[in-house]
Amino acid sequence: MPEKITAYRFDYLDETLSQLNKEDCAIVAGGTDVMVLHKSGRGVPPKIPKPVVFIDHLSELKRVYQKDKDLHIGSCSTYGELLENPLIPIALKNAIKTIAAPAIRNRGTLGGNICNASPAGDTLPLLYVYNAKLLLRSVNGDRVVAISDFIQAPRRIGRNHNEILAEIILPSVLEEGSHVVFEKIGNRNADAIAKVSFAGYIRISNERIDDIRFAFGAVGPTMVRSIDIEKKLLGKPFPLSETDIDSIVADFDQIIRPIDDQRSTAVYRKTVALNLLRYFLNTSQYQPN
Ligand SMILES: Cc1cc2nc3c(=O)[nH]c(=O)nc-3n(C[C@H](O)[C@H](O)[C@H](O)COP(=O)(O)OP(=O)(O)OC[C@H]3O[C@@H](n4cnc5c(N)ncnc54)[C@H](O)[C@@H]3O)c2cc1C
């Protein structure tokens, strides 16, 4: 006889937040990470050690809208829904297309990818270079945190047990003029966990670099980004000189420290990460997107 667990599925976000305030529950959005994390044997229901609260049906968590130049994405928007939404930037759609197969993309959510805090989460490098902010909601109100502060370590996030990630905010993402890329190296095009991933963001003004950002996935416990290194390139003439490119690649060589695991080796990961960076910096024609 399978063990019974308590499960909640409220009609409104307010009721869900009240329950979370009374009781520490396991939040389930699409469930594609939760079910794997708690799986038991074949044919045996997963063992989740807390009461479960479902949130993926809540319309308050599925809105995608523009406010000034910022894009607000409801945390429970599935990948499938985001792919169909004209407000979602092409680079983010490109990253989503590399995630799993359509069945998972119809269940998995952007909020789930963030709160799962995997070093190989495919949307994370881009969310870092977009300077994403996260709106957390509880019975006490809202607070907004930078994604780089929220994700603390593999599977560790700065969420209080009574909070839900309600929205992902991409500041100024709807402003024109920047060029953003996402690259993922895995065993095959879809349905593969990243060995290495990379996101680059650049904005040029009067043939000089106005803004530039990079983030690497799967080469450290969380995304690797360095604002100090990025600052060195601000104001530099574009295209960059070989000396500048070599110096930035050497800087990242110092701070990227991948590990060997079942998916890849540290040496391969580092080589590919630095190659992706060099390729991005070497590009002399950027298409704003
Ligand atoms: C076969 C398969 C292939 C996959 N391939 C990829 C891949 O290629 N790339 C990739 O990045 N991932 C992949 N994943 C992982 C997974 O699909 C994604 O991480 C997905 O985005 C998780 O979303 P979810 O809604 O299913 O999260 P859930 O499993 O529901 O939740 C994940 C975690 O986040 C918490 N959570 C979810 N939403 C919220 C919220 N709004 N507020 C607070 N906490 C919340 C949950 O409590 C849980 O701890 C794969 C998974 C499977 C099973």
UniProtKB/TrEMBL annotation:
The keyword Transcription does not apply. Pfam families: CO_deh_flav_C, FAD_binding_5. The keyword Oxidoreductase applies. InterPro entries: CO_DH_flav_C, CO_DH_flav_C_dom_sf, Diverse_Substr_Oxidored, FAD-bd_PCMH, FAD-bd_PCMH-like_sf, FAD-bd_PCMH_sub2, Mopterin_DH_FAD-bd. Residues 1-175 form the FAD-binding PCMH-type domain. Transmembrane segments: none annotated. One of its GO terms (molecular function) is FAD binding. It comes from Neobacillus rhizophilus. The lineage of its organism: Bacteria, Bacillati, Bacillota, Bacilli, Bacillales. This is Xanthine dehydrogenase family protein subunit M. Keywords: Flavoprotein, Oxidoreductase.
